[in-house]
Specification:
Elements lengths: L2 E11 L5 E11 L3 E5 L6 H9 L6 E6 L2 E2 L4 H5 L2 E4 L11 H11 L6 H10 L15 H13 L5 E5 L7 H16 L3 E5 L3 H7 L2 E6 L2 E7 H8 L2 E7 L16 E3 L4 E6 L8 H10 L4 E8 L2 H13 L2
Parallel strand pairs: 3-8, 3-9, 6-7, 7-8
Antiparallel strand pairs: 1-2, 1-4, 4-5, 9-10, 11-13, 11-14, 12-13
């Protein structure tokens, strides 16, 4: 799959000496969903702003669809749609006029049928003649998405698109994201709801302290860094892990009724058979067994903690 967006050693250092982006390099493939994750202040929004031309980088280069964002800014920017974190809309303007104006800003001819399709897709069509100020916070975020899509971009940035949105609206918005991907739109999103990133993204990028830690296929990342746990429920509680079971590194939970065993599922030998035999020999009766795979959130927290630990 070819790259539609290329970031080459992008750096942003402010006048006070703070480096928000430190030689960031990144390739984003056409038609993919990339989740860009990082703690607050990691550089996510600065990176998006630099790509979109809102922030002037100190050095480095960005191309979108082959267009340099500095020497061919208009051509590059026309390919990008941006949904920012902040809701900054004209409160007294109608929804339809707000979206129509955004399309016109990019020099696109009037196309009411296209805008109707977008508004219907976002459940905004019945609110098209309402002023922005009458909408809920979640519906205003949908207007931001409609504005970003109005000029038919090939790349869409979603910067915390579901912040402050209730569960039902969040689910609807992710359905819209899936449809956009099917339409061929490349999507880069930042989100604090990591379970959503895990469900939606094709690849995961992690940024902290202005540097990219990794960019990797989501499934490969989960396999490589994911921890597998076997949770063993006992029929009778124990006060401590029997000495014979200590080599397995078990953790005792649930008031002594649960033993937790962590293992590498990629290893040739997981040790599960030996553990189950040792449990029987220790006189422990198993009531139930379940396995649990590390979530993307657990992997992310581990990566960031490892990066900041001196």
């Amino acid at each position: 799959m070819s790259a539609i967006l290329t970031v080459d050693r992008l750096t942003k250092t402010y006048a006070g000496g703070f480096t928000a982006l430190d030689a960031v390099s990144l390739e984003i493939r056409e038609g993919e969903i990339l989740a860009l994750l990082g703690p607050n202040g990691a550089g996510k929004t600065t990176l998006i702003s630099a790509i979109c031309g809102i922030v002037q980088p100190t050095s480095g280069r960005v191309t979108v669809g082959g267009h340099d964002t500095v020497t061919a800014y208009r051509s590059a920017r026309a390919l990008i749609g941006l949904v920012p974190q902040e809701i900054n809309l004209e409160p007294f303007e109608k929804v339809i006029n707000t979206v129509r104006f955004s399309r016109g800003l990019f020099g696109k001819p009037r196309d009411d049928a296209f805008l109707e399709r977008i508004l219907r897709q976002l459940s905004l069509w019945d609110k098209r003649d309402q002023p922005i100020r009458s909408l809920s916070g979640g519906m205003k975020r949908r207007v931001l998405i409609a504005k970003a899509l109005s000029h038919e971009p090939r790349v869409l940035f979603l910067d915390e698109p579901t912040a402050g949105v209730d569960v039902e609206l969040r689910r609807d918005m992710w359905e819209v994201v899936r449809q956009l991907k099917e339409d061929g739109v490349t999507i880069i999103l930042t989100t604090h709801y990591l379970e959503e990133a895990e469900a939606m993204a094709d690849r995961i990028g992690v940024i902290t302290r202005g540097r990219i830690l990794l960019v990797e296929d989501k499934d490969a990342l989960m396999r490589r860094m994911g921890r597998k746990e076997m949770r063993i429920e006992l029929k009778e509680p124990v006060t401590r892990v029997p000495q014979a079971l200590e080599p397995f590194g078990l953790t005792l939970e649930g008031e002594g009724r649960r033993l937790v065993y962590a293992y590498d599922r990629q290893a040739n030998r997981t040790g599960i058979v030996r553990l189950l035999t040792a449990l029987q020999e220790a006189g422990l009766t198993v009531a139930d067994v379940e396995t649990k795979q590390s979530s993307l959130e657990e992997i992310f927290v581990g990566l960031v903690k490892e990066e900041v630990t001196p």
